[in-house]
Design a protein that fits this description.
The complex is a heterodimer. By secondary structure, chain A is of the alpha/beta class. Chain A is built from 14 helices and 13 strands. Chain A folds into three domains: 102 residues, 3-Layer(aba) Sandwich (Rossmann fold), CATH 3.40.50; 146 residues, Rossmann fold (3-Layer(aba) Sandwich); 44 residues, no CATH class. In chain A, 35% of the residues lie in helices and 17% in strands. Chain A is globular, with a radius of gyration of 21 Å. Chain B has two domains: 112 residues, PurM-like, N-terminal domain (60s Ribosomal Protein L30, Chain: A); 167 residues, PurM-like C-terminal domain (Phosphoribosyl-aminoimidazole Synthetase, Chain A, domain 2, Alpha-Beta Complex). The chains are: A alpha/beta, B alpha+beta.
């Protein structure tokens, strides 16, 4: 495939890997966080670790859209899904996220009409095809997916659809990053910035990372060569004693972001005062809800939900994994109590989750050259 | 001060060891209800078969969990298999449920090294199904049976109320005669065996997916459904007893076949990603939908394991068989790490190719 295969070229990959090797100081340990779950997935899928020197370690960050969802939100979704006459729609990965008593997939087997969709517009179409039913879309994700939810809501409004509503669990990327950087147990040297989110928000929102915390950020694409090059750019900043926001993904990400998308989001959503993140707890101004103008399309207003905060299972260490404090395999239940087929924590659910990516792709002996 | 990397790596290895031991155990069936993942051919299916069905019937033939069982009566060795077909939609580019119902069962016999002889045919029909639609499927069944050289020897019909069976479900059972040229089983796999794939992956699953029209994607792709007996016959002729094992890569795709066999034979498999043949359209559709084509179903592709000294001859014979022109050597059986399939990525890294967990595409056969 043109415009994709070029960024998977093994020859070029080896050349960038040699550059990286020349930039690392022997004896120094580098910890770089890839913020976005899409990067985590690519890193494992292409075995990018194998091309890095052993003293460059990648830490998997909090940017996986299903990994943030706390158990209480899943329970709320299941409660709506079991309401008479409701067709509940969500993305595929969301189906397997465990609530306090099973997942949406279990709720489907128990009789709930729960359907997987690839886009919120699919949910809107289902609503049009089923005028006698209430169709609810479980909206999740960062600024990447929020604009499509916003546009769908605008279209529902324009078409006067009365049987469609959204359970909004959208989140924003900057507050959790700030929370991470404030966390005392964290030691990171730099960030691979989230490419998809940045297509919407641009590069500007990440400027606080070098300005306030002195760490380099390089926004990167999702092909293996993109990620390697971003690592090289971060190491080059570190070697030169610099810290800036740089953009490796210029072919897609404009510095200012997508103003039209930001406008639509501002119209349809407003910030919640605080939002609960799995494992990270409550983070102020980190979640989105529908604005007052769209409250009639808000599923949380339309349906009664338990809204109970459910504590994470004791054994679950998703929070520490999301902060990069421990590696997936260091979690007490990794691979034994918690597996992709029977997840305890959300990091084990999506292929973008750090634990699932490591379990599915990375779970074998690697001998790497130590610089 | 960071912890010592060597000690960390040792601890990681120990934990990975514990996980592998847990994974090697027979899967338990612990779900409260059946969900769609139990039908996907991945881990949930495995838990259903190994955890509930096999222990309940305690039959030696069943315990082998092969594509077809061997039944011996007197001097006659018969291969025996059964399968049901619930594909939605009934007709799709390149085939229909009727052809699948013949070819799927014929192929389970063929890859166990048996020449297909006869099939039974059970039809479960939905009230209201059009006679023309039914007639078309009966013609498809007759045509596929003729092409595969099997007789439809017995059958049954049932009708269920409107709203069930999505038009029709079909169940076929097949009997075949064991071919003496090779003895095929997972136990026959040896480190060093070459892994051959008879053609491009993922075409059947992709064709079905596009035919459902759920994704608003259009592309020219046809199901690969066909009888694999001519392919098996060619391989047996070229490799004889050096052909150690075969599987048709249906539900769960090539990845699932490799995982099942690695687990059954306690060997490792290494796959070179760049050498796996794949149609550009399938590649593009899988990329868009975030699906790995190695997990997408095929209905006319097999994976064969051949001793190294005969693998070149086997590949030549494969490529000379109509429909298998793009057959390829995709990897090798290794000793370590047992039970695991490792991919050498085209980018130069390595990763695990694990069993399927969820179900990317339900009801593809």
């Amino acid at each position: 495939m043109r415009f994709v295969d070029e960024f998977r070229d093994a020859e070029l990959g080896r050349a960038v890997a040699m550059e990286i090797l020349s930039l690392v100081e022997p004896g120094r340990q580098y910890k770089l966080m890839e913020v976005c779950g899409g990067h985590t997935h690519s890193i494992y899928k292409y075995g990018i670790d194998d091309l890095l020197p052993a003293n460059v370690e990648l830490v998997h960050g909090p940017g996986c859209p299903v990994c943030e969802i706390p158990m209480g939100r899943v329970d709320d979704g299941i409660a709506i899904a079991h309401t008479d006459g409701v067709i509940f729609t969500c993305f595929g990965d969301m189906m397997r996220v465990p609530g306090s008593d099973g997942s949406l997939l279990d709720a489907k087997a128990a009789g709930g009409d729960i359907r997987m969709v690839y886009s919120p517009l699919d949910a809107l179409r289902i609503a049009k095809q089923n005028p006698d039913r209430e169709v609810v879309f479980f909206a999740i994700g960062f600024e990447t997916t929020a604009p499509s939810t916003a546009l769908t809501l605008k279209r529902a409004r324009a078409e006067g659809l009365k049987n469609f509503s959204v359970m909004c669990s959208h989140v924003t990327i900057v507050p959790p990053l700030r929370a991470l950087l404030e966390s005392p147990d964290l030691r990171l040297d730099g960030f691979i910035g989230p490419g998809h989110v940045s297509t919407v928000v641009g590069a500007r929102p990440f400027q606080f990372i070098p300005a306030d915390y002195g760490k380099p950020v390089v926004i990167a694409g999702f092909e293996p060569l993109d990620i390697l090059q971003a690592i090289e750019m971060i190491l080059r900043q570190l070697a030169g004693g610099r810290c800036d926001v740089e953009n490796q993904y210029k072919r897609v990400v404009p510095f200012e972001g997508n103003l039209r998308a930001l406008e639509v989001m501002a119209e349809v959503f407003e910030l919640r005062p605080h939002f609960e993140w799995r494992g990270l707890g409550f983070i102020s101004h980190s979640g989105l809800k529908l604005s007052d103008a769209y409250a009639d399309l808000d599923a949380e207003v339309r349906f009664s939900v338990p809204g109970v905060r459910v504590a994470d299972p004791k054994a679950c260490q998703c929070g520490e994994v999301l902060k990069g404090v421990i590696k997936p395999w260091e979690c007490k239940v990794f691979g034994t109590g918690c597996t992709p087929e029977r997840p305890i924590g959300t990091c084990m659910v999506s292929s973008e989750g750090a634990c699932a990516a490591y379990y599915n792709f990375g779970r074998f002996a690697r001998e790497r050259e130590v610089v | 001060m960071s912890p010592d990397p060597a000690a960390v790596s040792e601890r990681e290895q120990k934990i990975l060891g514990i996980i592998e031991t847990a994974r090697a155990k027979r899967a338990k069936f612990r779900d409260k209800r059946i969900n769609m993942a139990h039908g996907a051919g991945g881990k949930a299916t495995q838990s259903l078969i190994e955890g509930l069905l096999a222990p309940a019937f305690a039959s030696d033939a069943l315990n082998e969990l092969a594509d077809a069982a061997t039944i011996t009566t007197g001097d006659v060795e018969l291969a025996f298999t059964t399968d049901s077909y619930v594909v939605k939609p009934m007709r799709f580019p390149g085939g229909s449920i009727g052809e699948l119902a013949v070819n799927g069962t014929v192929n389970d016999l063929a890859v166990s090294g048996a020449r297909p002889v006869a099939l039974s045919l059970s039809l479960i029909l939905e009230e209201g199904l059009g006679a023309d639609e039914l007639r078309a499927e009966i013609d498809a069944i007759a045509g596929a049976a003729r092409a595969a050289g099997v007789a439809i020897a017995t059958g049954d019909t049932k009708v269920v109320e409107r709203g069930h069976a999505d038009g029709m479900y079909i169940c076929t059972t097949g009997v075949g005669r064991r071919d003496g040229r090779a003895s095929l089983s997972p136990a026959g796999l040896r480190p060093g065996d070459r892994i051959l794939l008879s053609g491009p992956v993922g075409e059947h699953g992709t064709a079905i997916m596009l035919a459902r029209g759920e994704f608003e994607l259009d592309a020219e792709i046809e199901s690969d459904t066909c009888s694999l007996w001519p392919v098996v016959d060619a391989l047996l002729g070229a490799a004889g007893a050096d052909l150690h094992c075969m599987r048709d890569a249906t539900r769960g795709g090539v990845a699932s076949v490799l995982n099942e066999l690695a687990r059954a034979a306690a060997t490792s498999m290494i796959v070179n990603e760049a050498s796996v043949p794949i149609a550009p359209v399938v590649h593009a559709a899988a990329e868009l939908l975030g699906i790995d084509p190695m997990y997408v179903a095929n209905e006319g592709r097999l994976v064969a394991f051949v001793a190294p000294q005969r693998s070149d001859a086997a590949l030549v014979a494969l490529r000379a068989t109509p429909g298998c022109e793009q057959a390829a050597l995709i990897g090798e059986v290794r000793r370590e790490p047992p039970g695991m399939v490792i991919v050498e990525t085209s980018f130069g890294g390595r990763r695990v190719m694990d069993q399927l967990v969820g179900d990317p595409l339900p009801r593809i056969c």
